[in-house]
Amino acid sequence: MPLTRDQKKDQVGWFEGVLNDNEVVVVMKNSGLTVAEVTDLRNQMREAGGGVKVVKNRLAKIAIGDRPGSEVKDLFKGPTVVAYSEDPVTAPKVIVKWAKDHDALEILGGLMGETSMDAGGIESLSKMPSREEIIGQIAATLTAPGANISSAAGAPAANIAGILKTLAEKEDA
């Protein structure tokens, strides 16, 4: 059953919102995936903080328009599905990991901000640390000097105690 004009307008508006509100959009070929597989992918992406949706190519191209990175429009051919996330590495990480176990999913490329990317760019993005991992690394780096100072401050006392114990053992012997 064809979409009404209002439904088409809603889908274009939704995809414009996805492009504006998310750091990354991954475009994939959706041929040969079962409904159960797409549902599994959607669930994994939702748990990670992103989304997955099958899109109509013509409507996606209208939503992309002439914005920077509009070269990505060339990827919308045949059955297409998009994944998106606010964190620029979440969607690529989930998609690349999921695609390794499902040969029917082919990553075509995507859009990060205003930059269009090919499949290799999406794969490279998937190898980068996530926002949470970076925050954890920064926190560890910031707390490391305090831990070093406290261990350095306690070290002379421990050394003196060790020396005194050794001297006491020598006197007893």
Summed up:
Helix content is 58%, strand content 18%. It contains 6 helices and 5 strands. Helix 1 packs across helix 3, helix 2 runs antiparallel to helix 4 and helix 4 packs across helix 5.
Provide an overview of this structure.
The protein is an alpha+beta fold. The protein folds into two domains: 5-128, Alpha-Beta Plaits; 130-173. Helix content is 58%, strand content 18%. Strands 2-3-1-4-5 form a five-stranded antiparallel β-sheet, sandwiched between helices. A hairpin with a 2-residue loop joins strand 4 (105-112) and strand 5 (115-118). The longest helix has 42 residues, at 131-172. The radius of gyration is 26 Å and the shape is elongated. 25% of the residues are buried. The mean pLDDT is 83.
**What does the radius of gyration come to?**
26 Å
Low-confidence stretches: none
- Helix run count: 6
Number of domains: 2
Beta-strand content: 15-25%
GO biological process, one term: translation
Function: Forms part of the ribosomal stalk, playing a central role in the interaction of the ribosome with GTP-bound translation factors.
Keywords: Ribonucleoprotein, Ribosomal protein, RNA-binding, rRNA-binding
InterPro entries: Ribosomal_uL10, Ribosomal_uL10-like_sf, Ribosomal_uL10_bac, Ribosomal_uL10_bac_type
Question: Characteristics of this structure?
Answer:
RNA-binding, alpha+beta, Ribosomal_uL10_bac_type, Alpha-Beta Plaits, Large ribosomal subunit protein uL10, ribonucleoprotein
